[in-house]
Amino acid sequence: MASKILVVEDEREIADLLVAYIERAGMHVLRATSVPEAIMVHNQSAPDLVLLDIGLPGGDGLDVLAAIRRRAGTPVIMLTAVDDDVSKLSSFRIGADDYVVKPFNPAEVVERIRAVLRRASGEREPKRLSVGPLDIDLEARLVSCRGEEKPDSRLNLTPTEFEILAHMARYPRRAFSRAELLEAAAPGSDAYDRVIDSHLSKLRQKLVAAGCADMIEPVRGVGYRLWLENA
């Protein structure tokens, strides 16, 4: 069943952007734009996680956080333009699970949602990923490719190439934008997202050289995906 995410944000453009990315990640979104509405929707709908702005009509987002904590243990990520230590400390003391400052990368917000949901459910990050002939050891940071001509051939990847491949392997067949892949490989980087094309070109060459088919393919108008017919 898809996770229900309550987005509490009074700026429509920001809310629409978040909703688009969260729904694209396969989650269901509820919306609220004020303190009273946020508390009401939370009480009525029991979301799995709340994205919560601090500056809201009808009060303060911290009031919503406190109301949620009095009633439930719903994970809450603060999403706000308020970037000071007092607000951050107050949020965490009341019970926030994460704190994201605007402006933000919506793809990063989605990954933070996934991470908080995993922690809340007790789910742990797997130590290994296997997609078709690819075997990725996340702890040792090793990648091997079980090709027909070169069985168990190990790929010599740069740190950036490893992060890109591991991120794509977590969601095989999903199309990623260049910005999403850049954020996954180098969070907070101010590099142009087109630099990802160079990394992907070298990564695809290494996959082929290791004996694997060219598993990474471009998606017109979007970016790239790790593709297997039966993945």
Name the quaternary structure: single chain
Shape: elongated
Give me the side-by-side strand order of the main sheet: 2-1-3-6-7
- How much helicity do the residues have? 40-55%
CATH architecture label name of the largest domain: 3-Layer(aba) Sandwich
Rg, Å, rounded = 20 Å
> How many structurally independent domains?
2
Low-pLDDT stretches are none
Helix and strand element order: EHEHEEEHEHEHEEEEHEHHEE
Structural class: alpha/beta
CATH superfamily of the largest domain: Response regulator
Question: Count the helices. How many?
Answer: 8
Could you describe the 3D structure shown?
The protein has 231 residues and is of the alpha/beta class. 42% of the residues lie in helices and 23% in strands. The strands form four sheets. The chain has a five-stranded parallel beta sheet with strand order 2-1-3-6-7, with helices on both faces. A hairpin with a 3-residue loop joins strand 13 and strand 14. The longest helix has 16 residues, at 106-121. The protein starts with a strand and ends in a 5-residue tail after the last strand. The model has no long low-confidence stretch (mean pLDDT 86).
